Task: inverse folding
């Protein structure tokens, strides 16, 4: 089972700033099948990025994903007020179980 | 518009059972892999189970294997999760989700809360 560790646990930034969220895997993620989700309180998760760097339908281009092997990054180039939420990375691919990181809380500074 | 609506959650005693349902609309249900996830109160997301479009391949997280069963009725466009031998640690909001590609889910229901308590 792949263990995903996200850092930092909490990130405090202001609107307009750049956010960089990290996800490190305990072993190489085959095919770079890694996804990122955003979750706001009381809501279901929303898919942002899949296959490391592909944006899901309707996701603004200020969200971008990168990485390979064991190190992956979600970048929000210029934070909007609605971007403050919890973000999860997920190991995907053809081997189960799928696992999630513990989440990064992005809060307004 | 893709829509997933879960139902069937509730309060159940340890050792009890529930059948969760997820009604799908707005997409060709019979051609997609479908999944269940859960989230305990104040905690992170956990993958529970996955089923292929034909309903012939099912996989489970170790924590639920042998107790939970995923199934689907493509004619009724409905996904199910039979949850048996429930434990307090199964308390969570259960979400069904449509698989976009290789486990990444692009549509989620609003969730149904399962509370296991005496």
Result:
């Amino acid at each position: 089972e792949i263990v995903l560790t996200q850092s930092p646990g909490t990130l405090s930034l202001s609107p307009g700033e750049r956010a960089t969220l990290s996800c490190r895997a305990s072993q190489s993620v085959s095919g770079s099948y890694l996804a990122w989700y955003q979750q706001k309180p009381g809501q279901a998760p929303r898919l942002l990025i899949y296959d490391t760097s592909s944006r899901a339908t309707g996701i603004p281009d200020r969200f971008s994903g990168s990485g390979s092997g064991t190190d992956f990054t979600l970048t929000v180039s210029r934070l909007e007020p609605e971007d403050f939420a919890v973000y999860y990375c997920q190991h995907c691919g053809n081997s189960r179980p799928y696992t999630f990181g513990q989440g990064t809380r992005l809060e307004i500074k | 518009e893709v829509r997933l609506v879960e139902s069937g959650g509730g309060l159940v005693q340890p050792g009890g059972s529930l059948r969760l349902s997820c009604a799908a609309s707005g997409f060709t249900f019979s051609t997609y892999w479908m999944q269940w996830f859960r989230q305990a109160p104040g905690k992170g997301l956990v993958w529970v189970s996955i089923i292929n479009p034909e309903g012939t391949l099912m996989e489970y997280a170790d924590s639920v294997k042998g107790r939970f069963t995923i199934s689907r009725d493509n004619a009724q466009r409905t996904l199910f999760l039979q949850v048996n031998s429930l434990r307090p640690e199964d308390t969570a909001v259960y979400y069904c989700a449509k698989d976009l590609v290789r486990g990444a889910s692009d549509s989620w229901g609003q969730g149904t809360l399962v509370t296991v308590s005496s």
